[in-house]
Amino acid sequence: MRHWLISTALACTLLSSTGCLIPIYSGDPARRAQELFYSSENLRALLDEWERIWFLDMPTHLTPHSVHGGII
Description:
The protein is mainly α. It has a domain of 31 residues. 57% of the residues lie in helices and 0% in strands. It has two helices and no strands. The protein is elongated, with a radius of gyration of 27 Å.
C-alpha cells in the first residue's frame, strides 16, 4: 500500500511539473522566431478586427469642445 501511495504521489508531482506534452513552438530558434512573428501578427489583426466590429476605427465627428445647444 505504501509503495502504491508513494508512486502515485511521485507521478502526480512529475506530471504537474513537466508542462505541456506537445510544445506549441518549434525548438529551432529561426523557425520559432518565425512562428512567434506570425502569432503576433495574428493578434494585431485580431485587434484591428475588434476595432472594426465595434466601429472604433471610424473618425469621430464630435467637436473637441462642448457646444451650448440653446439660443444665446
